[in-house]
Structure formats: structure tokens, C-alpha cells
Please model this.
Amino acid sequence: GGGFRSGLLGGPGGGLRGGGGGGAPPRRAAVVLVLSEDDIEPPPSGVYRLIDTETGREQEIEIDTAVGDRFRHRVAVFRESIAESCRRFGAPLATLIAERSWEAEPIDLSPLVSSGVVEAG
Model:
């Protein structure tokens, strides 16, 4: 049967792991990476007050161009690490940005279709 697993970062070492383990036959895997716009773009430059909801402690941080550039770089490294894990295990990858309109910006599901994980139609 089929299944769905969420959380590529779970478990020691994170990332994808091969096979079914324990002598189980290998399974076909596909990865759909769902991101928010907030996950890929830093907030606008400015000073922000962060409040820890558990302790009530406040801290101000400043977002400037350099911080935004580091944020974007780390996002790119994260996305490339997911793509590399998918390539290594032969798992097709599709990335969805939650806030984007599927009609205005079609989602590229061709990796999932060409691998036979998803049927076109």
C-alpha cells in the first residue's frame, strides 16, 4: 500500500534514508516540499521586537540587507540539501509555495508524473 510521510528532518541525521529497513522491500518515494513565502523570503528591513511566548522575555533584532542575504543563502542551502537527498535516493521532488495561486503560477509536477508516482489527467 501507499503512504505519506511528513518531515524530512526527523530522526538522527535528518534527510531521507534508503529502503524499508529490516529486510522490507524498497519503496518508491516522492517528496513534495511545501514552503510558505515566509520560509523563502526574509521580512522587510527594519527593527523587530521578538517576544518569547513561554517566558515573556523580549528581544529586539534588526533585519538589514546583510541579514536578508544570509537568510536567502541559508534557504538555498536547505533546498539544495533536500534536492541532493532526493537525487541520491532517486526520489522525484516537487516544491509548492503555499500562498501562490496554482492557476496564476502552475506547479511543476512533471518529476512526479514522469516517475509514475502521480498520474496526469
